[in-house]
Write a structure and sequence with these properties.
Blueprint (H helix, E strand, L loop, with lengths): L8 H29 L3 H13 L7 H10 L19 H12 L5 H5 L7 H4 L13 E3 L9 H11 L3 H4 L2 H8 L5 H13 L18 E6 L7 H5 L2 E7 L2 E3 L9 E6 L2 E4 L2 E2 L4 H4 L1 H6 L12 E2 L6 E2 L8 E2 H10 L3 E3 L29 E3 L16 E22 L6 E21 L5 E3 L2 H11 L7 E7 L2 H9 L6 E6 L2 E10 L5 E8 L11 H5 L17 H6 L2 E2 H5 L7 H10 L3 E3 L2 E2 L1 H31 L9 H11 L7 E4 H8 L7 E3 L5 E3 L3 E6 L2 H8 L2 E3 L3 E2 L2 H7 L2 H4 L13 E10 L12 E3 L28 E3 L8 E5 H11 L1 E11 L1 E3 L1 H19 L3 H11 L11 E6 L1 H10 L4 E6 L5 E6 L6 E2 L1 H24 L4 E5 L2 E5 L3 H12 L11 E3 L16 E9 L2 E10 L1 E5 L7 E5 L6 E10 L4 H11 L4 H9 ...
Parallel strand pairs: 2-5, 13-16, 16-19
Antiparallel strand pairs: 1-11, 2-3, 3-4, 5-6, 7-10, 8-9, 12-23, 13-14, 14-15, 17-18, 18-19, 20-22, 21-22, 23-38, 24-39, 25-42, 26-40, 26-41, 27-34, 28-33, 29-32, 29-33, 30-31, 35-37, 36-37, 39-40, 42-43, 43-46, 44-45, 47-50, 48-49, 50-51, 51-52
Helix pairs in contact: 3-4, 22-29, 24-28, 24-31, 27-31, 28-29
Length: about 1150
């Protein structure tokens, strides 16, 4: 109801007193009822604050009050959130309730209340003031000066759920009431395909807008107010064309634009008077009566304040600009909005004082782990593999540039075609390997298998690299759902199979590579050492559809398409397949089936072995998890590692994500070096597991650092009271925003402990024309790269935990100032025992030659990664055209991409709500900071001793070999720990060339010459003493045994340890052989001098182009590498390491 709060109402009240007598008694009874139910004013405050602050419970004021009246409230039941600053009075609850429930409220009842409060503004939740949908929210806390029409206006807009689900442009159009739903759907369908249409200059290109006028102001409101008030700018659009001059009265669709947000341009039922005089109104609320329209002079200060007049109106654009001018709008934080689907772009740094901080945290639930006796949730476990043809078989001529001469040459190459499956092999957990033409064979088998079942079934099918095989499943006409894509990999997806008896089998495809991250050819040695089951050779490009149908292959011709295979080896494989027709002819179908069945058998055997070992070692059912990292986390959770630890989400997760900094990777002082001193690759033993053994996990809920605590920890002695061990004088864990400055005792380091990411230029670059390439400039070098430096940007706010902050003080003598942050008060040290167990168990198995050591190795390498997962910003589904059209209407502004998969099938990517994503970024920070401390303790001590280190890559350093003993003694003296060894926290030599593995004396290997060009680009020339030789086995000449050499037969062998990010070992070797006369040192010298090198990426591998999930093999794929300053450039594009982000 609209309260008519003007002076004339008093006359009406006098005449109505008799009629209202009965109603007054009714209201008194209502108040007595409320008094009985709401037993505690503070409790009522708490409930209202809790329900309103938690935006997921957004409901209108009327509903809030009803809930208060219906539910009995006590202090105990309403302790979730306490609004310390709320001074709502009991009578105010009653008043608002009666306002909504009784239309004939006596005016004298209003007089008895000093002010009317709008509860939602009092507790300061999402009051974005109307449909305007700004990335700022209304700061007004007391709204006693707004009349009821203004209140109704605010409520209508604030609690309209459309605000959380619809783009501001569409919502503004809807508010004009000039468009039907079908017309709005038509506009949405255009925008989803091209978001640039929403720019002001592009609105004319949207069909169906009619006659549209957009009102905005170029003049800064903070300048001359009158000039700004009268300086509206307009964009007039008629029939898709911009009209230069026109009158606003000629348009029926009026919307406003401010701060990149659209909203309706209309008359708001309130004026700017209240905004301008807000502070005075807040200070003297009792002098403002709704019944007196005259201006009054406050008794305390003599200030003249003006009452709101219901006849005065303000245009919506003017009202919003006024709110901005008087600083009554603040940035909207992620904690303010539970559903961030439409607000993800407006989120900035979190408000750590936001009372909704606790809503970003929830306890970690223990998984329902299955023990060895329990059965998996799947009725059948299968393994499958596809074989495809990749060429047409035709020879074509192409022009290529010779990387040495630079001249254009004509080469003959195979004509490529989209990959098409011609064979699929599959088997059950214990069954025989079967084959067919495509995925339909598997579907038919499952239907036959369960044709007599009387209930629904679940089957899981593993494919090694599902991302590739998924393309042949997606195009098979199946109904695909629950697609999970992690990065570029498809982790799993499901399809329902409907049986003739009315039941259903859910077939889930999973990627076995995420469980066992290694090639199929390497899997037997992990789980079946010494087995004769090995991956065979296959001439992929020789298998054209024409040849396959003719079914006769030429051995010598096919051999040309196989790398690193002799004729004898290939013929032996054909004989094993029983596919040899004569001396030079083989049965292509038989051999393809044999090859594919071997792959399936290897995968099946290893997956079964892996599953069994996981059950024995971890007590976990493999099929319940998608990756080795999730299995490791489940094991650790069951062992109590995460007891009392909370998941974090929303803006707290985003805040702590800024503190996750990967391992330090850089050259000494970020410069290039050519060293001929003997160096050692000094490697930390299991760095992340070592860090886990040493650190702890903070438990409980994060709390905001108060100003008193900030002042406390800005004193260095207090900061260092926080120690690693359980007996620490201070058990808090800090995550803070800090300013660092150099002290007079500042120590510049060759490998600094702190870093920053080089920002993008403030000036945007001009847009490129189609097919135009941007030239890389000096300013582009290093953008987006994490730079470890002694010279941090001025006034740079750095985010870190207390461990990293202590290291800044300890190792470089920084001064610091904590600005803000959060802290945890308790700890869980269980990770120490589990990390030690994981390392020790692996060592026991490794010494015994037990393949179980590989399980513990995989678990140890992935135990950290699950903690620091980045946002998965997209969700995926496969739909038909009807479903796609429904999505375009309902979720049009969340759709990122639509890919056609053929007739009536589309792969749709939509933006994911950030608040659904949970993680343990605070734990990842602890592991990473502790790991960097382990490295800094050694490297800074070495630098203090004058021992040179030239390169670090996360867990290893290139250090002077002859001075390691001196470093070890100093380390023992300072830290009372042994430096060299195979235990956690210790270091050892990591040079181990694959071609001489286990053949040399490990104490003899050293680098005699090294070139460090930039991070991830370096080479070591190694020398080692060979003490063993390879002897072919009698039973299988392809396998070797190692035999000791007599001491007199020992000799010095040279090898090379080469690294170049983004370039394979085979491509490097190819470039060395063809461009540098077989000398790899010359290649790196070439790069050291700033020159470029082109690499053939197909020298030892195949490469695919992927478009709309269709794979095509590349005939040509090169990369040109150059290092400018200390930054690697590939194909004129700056390379950003994943650790840099």
């Amino acid at each position: 109801m609209k309260l008519k709060l003007h002076h004339e109402k008093l006359k009406v009240v006098t005449n109505q007193q008799a009629q209202l007598k009965n109603q007054q008694q009714k209201h008194i009874n209502t108040i007595m009822y409320i008094q009985k139910q709401v037993r505690n004013v503070s409790a009522a405050n708490n409930v209202i604050a809790d329900m309103c602050v938690r935006a997921k419970d957004i409901i209108c004021v009327q509903s809030v009050i009803k809930r208060i009246l219906v539910n009995k409230m006590t202090q105990e039941s309403t302790h979730i959130y306490k609004n310390e600053q709320s001074d709502l009075k009991y009578e105010q609850y009653v008043l608002i309730y009666i306002e909504h429930e009784n239309s004939n409220l006596p005016i004298k009842w209003l007089k008895s209340i000093s002010r009317i409060l709008l509860i939602i503004c009092e507790v300061e939740i999402l009051t974005s003031l109307t449909l305007f949908r700004f990335n700022k929210i209304n700061n007004i806390k007391q709204t006693s000066q707004l009349n009821q029409s203004s209140t109704a206006y605010l409520l209508k807009q604030l609690f309209n759920q459309e605000l959380n689900t619809e783009h501001c442009f569409i919502y503004a159009l809807r508010q004009t009431k000039q468009f039907t739903e079908s017309q709005l759907d038509n506009i949405k369908s255009q925008i989803v395909k091209n978001q640039d249409l929403l720019k002001l200059e592009n609105l004319k290109n949207i069909q169906g807008l009619g006659d549209l006028c957009v009102v905005y102001k170029k003049t800064n409101y903070k300048e001359d107010e009158e000039e700004a008030r009268n300086s509206n700018d307009y964009t007039f659009i008629k029939n898709g064309k911009v009209v230069q001059t026109d009158k606003i009265d000629n348009y029926n669709v009026l919307i406003a634009l401010h701060e990149q947000h659209y909203f309706i341009y209309n008359t708001a039922p309130c004026t700017t008077m209240f905004v301008k005089n807000y502070e005075a109104h807040k200070q003297y609320p009792k002098y403002f009566s709704y019944l007196d329209l005259k201006s009054i002079e406050t008794k305390q200060s003599g200030t003249i304040c003006y009452r709101h007049n219901a006849t005065y109106k303000t245009k919506s654009l003017e009202l919003i600009r006024c709110l901005f001018k008087y600083n009554l709008m603040t940035k909207c934080t992620a904690m303010t909005i539970e559903n961030q689907d439409q607000f993800d772009q407006m989120i900035d740094a979190p408000d750590l004082n936001d009372p909704a901080l606790s809503n970003c945290q929830e306890p970690i639930k223990k998984p329902n782990l299955k023990n060895m006796q329990q059965v998996a949730q799947y009725d059948e476990i299968m393994v499958a593999d596809f074989e495809t043809n990749t060429t047409t078989g035709k020879i074509i001529e192409v022009e290529v540039i010779n990387p040495v001469s630079g001249k254009v040459e004509i080469l003959k190459q195979l004509e490529r075609c989209p990959h098409k499956e011609f064979l699929v092999c599959y088997c059950t957990e214990n069954g025989k390997v079967m084959n067919g033409i495509n995925i339909g064979s598997i579907i038919s088998y499952i239907k036959r298998l369960y044709e007599d079942c009387k209930e629904d079934k679940r089957v899981v099918c593993y494919l090694h690299n599902l991302g590739y095989d998924a393309s042949y499943i997606m195009f098979a006409g199946l109904k695909i759902k629950n697609v999970l894509k992690i990065g570029s990999k498809i982790a799993c997806m499901e399809t329902p199979i409907y049986l003739d008896n009315g039941n259903m089998v859910t077939l889930k495809f999973c990627d076995s590579y995420m469980l066992i991250p290694t090639k199929v050819s390497k899997m037997p040695e992990l789980f079946m050492p010494g087995t004769k089951l090995v991956k065979e050779y296959f001439p992929y490009d020789y298998y054209t559809l024409t040849r396959y149908l003719k079914n006769k292959g030429n051995v010598d011709e096919a051999l040309e398409y196989i790398r690193n295979c002799t004729r004898e080896q290939f013929v032996n494989s054909i004989i094993k397949a029983n596919a040899m027709i004569d001396d030079n002819t083989f049965d292509m179908k038989k051999y393809a089936i044999y090859y594919c069945e071997i792959d399936v058998e290897i995968t099946r055997t290893c997956v079964n072995a892996f599953r069994k070992q996981i059950k024995e070692e971890f007590g976990v059912e493999m099929c319940d998890y998608l990756s080795i990292s999730s299995i490791t986390k489940a094991y650790q959770t069951n062992e109590g590692v995460f007891d009392d630890v909370v998941n974090i989400k929303g803006s707290l997760r985003k805040y702590l994500q800024q503190m996750i900094v990967g391992g330090r990777v850089c050259t000494k002082n970020n410069k290039k070096y050519h060293i001929k001193t003997k160096l050692q690759d000094f490697d930390a033993v299991g760095l992340y597991l070592s860090a886990m053994k040493r650190c702890y996990y903070p438990t409980g809920y994060a709390k905001t650092l108060t100003q008193d605590l900030i002042a406390h920890y800005n004193i260095k002695d207090n900061l260092f009271q926080i120690q690693e061990d359980p007996n620490s004088p201070d058990l808090r864990t800090l995550y803070v925003s800090v300013k660092l400055t150099k002290s007079k005792d500042f120590i510049p380091r060759a490998f600094p402990v702190q870093s920053y990411i080089k920002p993008k230029p403030t000036e945007p670059k001009p847009r490129l024309k189609k097919d135009e390439k941007r030239e890389l400039t000096e300013a582009d070098i290093g953008i987006g790269t994490r730079i470890f430096s002694n010279d941090l940007p001025d006034n740079k706010i750095i985010f870190m935990d207390h461990i990293a902050l202590q290291d800044c003080v300890t190792f470089q003598k920084y001064n610091y100032e904590i600005i803000s942050g959060v802290y945890y008060e308790t700890r869980n040290y269980r990770i120490n025992d589990i990390a030690a167990k994981m390392h020790e168990t692996r060592q026991v198995y490794k010494k015994a030659g037990n393949p179980l050591q590989n399980i513990w190795k995989l678990a140890g390498n992935t135990g950290y990664g699950n903690l620091a997962q980045k946002d998965h910003l997209e969700e995926f589904q496969i739909v038909n055209e009807k479903q796609l059209n429904e999505l375009l209407v309902k979720k049009w502004n969340t759709i990122e991409d639509v890919t056609s998969l053929g007739p009536d099938k589309y792969f749709v990517s939509t933006r994911k709500e950030l608040n659904q994503q949970k993680g343990q970024q605070h734990l990842a920070c602890m592991v990473l900071s502790t790991s960097k401390r382990i490295m800094s303790e050694v490297m800074c001590l070495a630098e203090d001793l004058g021992i040179e280190c030239y390169y670090q890559d996360t867990d290893s350093m290139h250090i002077e070999n002859d001075k390691i003993k001196m470093l070890s003694e100093a380390y023992k003296s300072k830290y009372n720990r042994e430096l060299i060894g195979e235990n956690q926290g210790q270091f050892h030599s990591d040079f181990d060339p694959e071609e001489f593995k286990k053949m040399f004396d490990k104490s003899s290997i050293v680098s005699v010459e090294s070139i460090f060009v930039s991070k991830k680009v370096y080479i070591d020339k190694l020398e080692m003493k060979i003490i063993k030789k390879k002897v072919p086995r009698v039973d299988d000449p392809d396998l070797f045994d190692l035999v000791d050499l007599d001491e007199s037969q020992h000799y010095i062998q040279t090898a090379y340890h080469m690294r170049m990010k983004g370039i394979s070992d085979g491509a490097i070797k190819d470039a060395v052989d063809k461009q540098f006369n077989g000398d790899p040192m010359k290649l790196y010298e070439h790069l050291l001098n700033g020159k470029s090198v082109t690499f053939n990426m197909l020298a030892d591998a195949v490469s695919f182009e992927i478009k709309n999930f269709v794979y095509t093999s590349r005939n040509e794929f090169t990369r040109t590498v150059q290092v400018i300053d200390d930054q690697m450039i590939i194909d004129n594009e700056h390379v950003v390491d994943s650790q840099d982000i």
